[in-house]
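@channel sequence for tomorrow's demo:
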Amino acid sequence: QVQVVESGGGLVQAGGSLRLSCAASGTISSLNIMAWYRQAPGEQRELVARAFSGITDYADSVKGRFTISRDYAKNTVSLQMNSLKPEDTGVYYCSVRRLPRTYWGQGTQVTVSS
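structure tokens (generated this afternoon):
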């Protein structure tokens, strides 16, 4: 079993920054993907960034603005979000993919005002 807990989020003006943090408990290897997703109202959940085996990748919409960092020893992952835009508003979820399951945190709200 894996437990995932997020922290951070909040309200920020456009152009501002926020940092999200996530801690996972349980047996997790570097091969297991730790990722951030987000879901805007009325929209499907979408991948924002992921990190595994020393590799990181990002959705095109956040490249150059967001940075995912993973501590493989501590099973933590953070998401530094800069130059935030109103369209970045949504509930952000941390996930751990350890087959056959994907484990999710409870989500944290990010609201960017224009």
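heads up for whoever presents: The chain has a mean pLDDT of 96.
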